[in-house]
Records
---
Amino acid sequence: MIPVATWQEEREISDEAKRLLDLAPLILKNVGKNDTAPGAYQDMLCVMEEIRDISGLYHKRFHGWNRSLQRYAKAGLKRVGVRDEVVGDLLDAYGKSLLMEAPYDFDQYMLYMEYDRPVENRFYLPRKRQLKPIVDALQELEDGKIAELFLSQPPRTGKTTLLDFFFSWEAGKYPECSNLYSSCSDTVTTSFYNGLLELMRDPFTYHWQEIFPDAPIVKLNADKQTVNVLTDSRFPTITCRSIDGTLNGACDCDNILCGDDLCKGIEQAVNKDVMMKLWQKVMNDLDSRAKQTAKRIWIGTRWSLIDPIGSRLDLLENDKAFENLKYKVINLPALDDKGQSNFNYKYNKGFSTADYEKKRAQFERAGDMASWLAQYMGSPVERSGSLFTAEDMRFYNGQLPEGEPARIFMAVDPAWGGGDFCAAPVCVQYGTDIFVPAVVYTDADKTMSTKEIVTLIEKYGVSTARIEATKTTMPFADEVRVRLREAGLVCSIETKPASTTVSKEDRIKDRAPEIKENFVFLEPRARTRTYQRFMDNVYSFTLQGRNKHDDAPDSLSMAADMVFRRGNIYGQVFKRFF
């Protein structure tokens, strides 16, 4: 494959190539002025090909030129209409533009591989909007900007198929290099191997052989699941092998090493000893096959905090030997922060918000929110350390008891946004039962979170709101007071600093019994998406000390403290008798 030019190499090319490099932008400008003229596109493509042939280099400037060509072609196609005689010529120019860059750009490769297929039958184009961040990250891995990529997605959303495309791309680019794909079982590796062969051997559906005409497949071994491209070397271009298969001495890796779903499932994940043995196998058998030049991809369901992905991340984050290693972590959960599906692909190929809401309801009804969070939200929870489960909690259908409540109050764990969540349950108290009809749970800035708090104060007639006070959050309380005055509302705003002698984790743990026994939450069908996210955060809290967000359970511990503790005196609030 023609190498990509460096800046220095561009300076050292021939005068003829330099002349063409200067001419290309002028031709491209002419394309932009007349985006329905096929001849202008052909002129530009010819100049680019001639530059490449003369210099023996693929210039980085081609990337920008190709994007402009494609943009103009799309605009021209919209302008001329499907019946115009130049449509075929514009489509041809668009395809040639994709082909020119396919060996160098993974996104362009993905598009051209399926260029002739009906759009609804393609893998990438219907999913491009959602999968593009992963495609870009794989490009970063190829370009050497990162050395390792960690990826978590829900089941059946295309992550392994995307890897099939990536491995086929790498095999065409570097046929004499060795790549290793490993998973939990032979069944998975066989599926991956068959998908790989389909991409590389089916010229009627895919364009791999056209993109890489100088990289023929010279040997296949279905039993060993290997592919040799260009040469029949000892270590094949691609080897697919399960983590329990023969790895030592049978395969090597100097390019891409991938561990895909190395943990078989919940049966392994709940056993710490099994997880430790699996991690040792990954280190001793799989990772030991990687040479110094190898780049790594770790992908799969995050079943446990100490699964192979978690253990590898912990190593990179906390061991000084890896402090200069660049890596990227991508977690695409089933539902985004607004409760909408991240995988509602075109042509009904993915999962709608309603699909995922049904799945979540099933897990909650079974009292296994840990599995929902692990499989679908990319948030592993150690089941032995989970403090709150659905079967331990109390729920109601949204209809509050008759009569006047003893008290309506709110506990606010403030935040400024930017990844931190403001959590605030509305609490309606009847005797020792505290019903929670609504919550604030948002990572928006204080302009939005304080507005939501005041909205709920007005809607439910909250008489007292306690806001956890620190030097940085005092302005948050002031903002709430200002908004209350502007709305003409009366509500007592208390501020109380968090304990300096008791950790947040211990506070939540200490208040867990009251939260489970006295708080009554909305049942799943009565919840808003915000309420559901609040509950997911409660369920995800673990005593293992690795809670990325614990704002929801912390706000509940504050609410419990408002009812059951006054200083060092414990008491009970009840309805007055007169």
---
Amino acid sequence: MMRTGKLLGLGALLAVLVAAGPVLAEDSELKDDLRKDVQSLKDELRQVRDELAGLRRMGESKSRLEEVEMRLLNERLERLERAVSRFASGYSTRTSASFSPGTTLTTGTVRLVNDLPVTATVRINGVRYTVPPLDSRSVQLPAGSFVWEAGGDGYSYTTPARTYLSPGETRRITVFPPTVVYP
């Protein structure tokens, strides 16, 4: 903007000097000064034109640089899209399903019966279940094999035994006093 104003100012000064030229033509010193000033103005005008051409070239260079940057960005975006599509094609959508057990049983019942006059303890797969004296209780277990042992207050535990429980089955374990064998 400042260059344009300077250029207009130089042009106006040149016009004044051209118009004043015939009046001042008689004075040779003045002519020489006037020639020097006109030459100076021409040089400055040429310099302004060169600077303006340089700015135009810079604008064109900047435009070319922006085009190159845009092309590079587009190439990167295309590579990313190809990579995403490769990953997406290798994976399937997760599916899930559920079912209701209906009539399929996966558990059975163990009936613990205590014939002792004291509280009995039955360990099934390491879990302790207590049964009051001369009473019973039921325990739900998953179908399959299990290990159990029984004892009571003041009585020793039996040897661990492995038993199989079928789905829907009720199996009975009775804790009773040991039989006494007399000689």
---
Amino acid sequence: MNPPHLRNTTLLFILLVIILLITAPRLVGLGQFVTLDEPNWLKFSSNFYYALGQHQFERTVYDYHPAVTTMWMVTGALLSYFPEYRGQGQGYFVKDWQFNEFLASFGRMPLELLVRSRLISVLAITLLLVATFLLGRVLIGTEAALVATLLISFDPFFLGHSRLLNHEGFLATATLASILSLVVYLEKSRKLYLLFFSGFCAGLALLTKSSAILLIGLAGLMILGRLLGDWRERSARPSIFPYVLALLAWLGVSVAVFFLLWPGMWVNPSKMLYEVFGNALSYAFQGSRLSVTGGIEPSHFSLDSSDIHYYFNVLLWGVTPLVWLGFLLAWLGFFLPGNARSEPLARKLTAYLSLLAILFVLLFSIARGRDAAHYILTSFVCLDFVAGIGLVTGVRWLGGRFRLLAKRSIRYCLLLGVLLLYALNSLPYYPYYYTYASPLARLSQPDMRHPNISYGEGLELAAAYLAQKPNAGELTVLSYNGIGPFSYFFSGETHILIRDDRFSLEELQELKEADYLVIYSVEQKPRDGSTALLSALESIPPEKTIWVDGVKYASIYAIDQFPESLFTAISG
């Protein structure tokens, strides 16, 4: 056995390698493109920061997310980039363009603020993934924990989203760290810091998105499972009270974190909870937020399971074949005979994480009103960790049949080689890693539209094309979702393209006075019932078409080339 200082040195080396492998692909090109949601979160978070400066803590609520961790990250970016923002008396912004103009008046750029916010998010996710490895090695050993952590880190769908300013990357890693810490507490060491860390991570997850409520049910199930296991394993049945107290302590820490880190809870907790969970319920069962439905009406509740097919396709297109293989091997580990059978803790983790992955899919499949591929990012992370267990189980099984693979060093080289190829598989999708398309999906559904694209990617390429025009700073462009994905990369004036079927006289005049029109072709497609504008444009060739990975993303039109008949066709 190696002496402690050598073991510690090895662990430190592994941690440094993990940190490097996690951060390197996430820090490169942080400001290269902007998604549809991120400009909104800069604005909402800046309102959060302004509310803190004005001590108007009741204004720190946003809808149903609650996105408090995201808003703290942007607050950190503001403190480093524009700390005086909170004291300018500007009030609370509703429109993105107003917020951007305010920043510009002080010589600040929203893209720089976004990059700093993304950087803070990447660092937070990195810390949680390091915690995932450290907790995982206690449960399933260094080899499996390393493979599982790197599978998560290199997963193209997770990699793509975890370098953006959104909620799902942090939610997924906080959720996973909470589960692993609770399993270590229940199965390995009844040390309170493990229970408290699990509750702390659960509190952070709940502060990020209301869907983290699933963690509470899973934690209760895990504690119940440990109680039933102790009843079977011990001759005298243990008291139920320590298990109840553990659950209450876990909940207490989660609630404390939820309360302490959300200033709105300090002054008006009922409003905060009603806004977040009331809006979440209203969206899930009534299809719209409270401001539309007018309140929670159980008589109007209904479930719609039509999105199950959509989320099945999200998984089919986004999950890599290697992860599906590892996931299958992990479940086969339940049934293999003798020494080839996976360890009891590995089987428990496989069951718990698989259940959580299914629950996230079901939650968003039956909820009404909103759907997006990244809503089930936690499912991807759970599948990745389970796949790590399965791949190591499979290689160890092979080691029992082939003497060469019985050597740990050979197994490590094989597994790391596979992971390297896995990571390289994502590189062609840079910087839009989440647009990865599994070959399984391409083969089985060659004519289907990729469900994990059209999140704003490609609009910056349209902006770059127009930015090369002479006197680009004097040009005016109308662009679909132009504020952010397009405007952050264009020095001229950007207006938002309306989505209505017909243009009013004022909107028509705005179109005529602009120089260029940008259509986000990957999202805006002429079909039955499409807008009059898209139908009119079908007969007009664009000046420039933006293609990414064989998909037409954007079309750029010179408005002075439009015939008068087009304006007549779209006028209301």
---
Amino acid sequence: MAALKFLCPKTGDVVDTGFDLDATSFADLPREIIRLSCPHCDEPHLLAHMSAWLGELLPAASAESPTSKRQRDLRG
């Protein structure tokens, strides 16, 4: 079991959701967007499955915040 985490798009800090999952449960999560409250900026964030990960380490592919990655993609 490992903690489900994501990056706060406002601060770039890692947010622990408080959910512990195994790899199978993580893979089986619905692809729906979930609204979670952020302890770093006190704002709600929309968490998409593709922007979350399990465990302590930030995956290399997620080293850039989801917001900045989305903005870069929109610029082309």
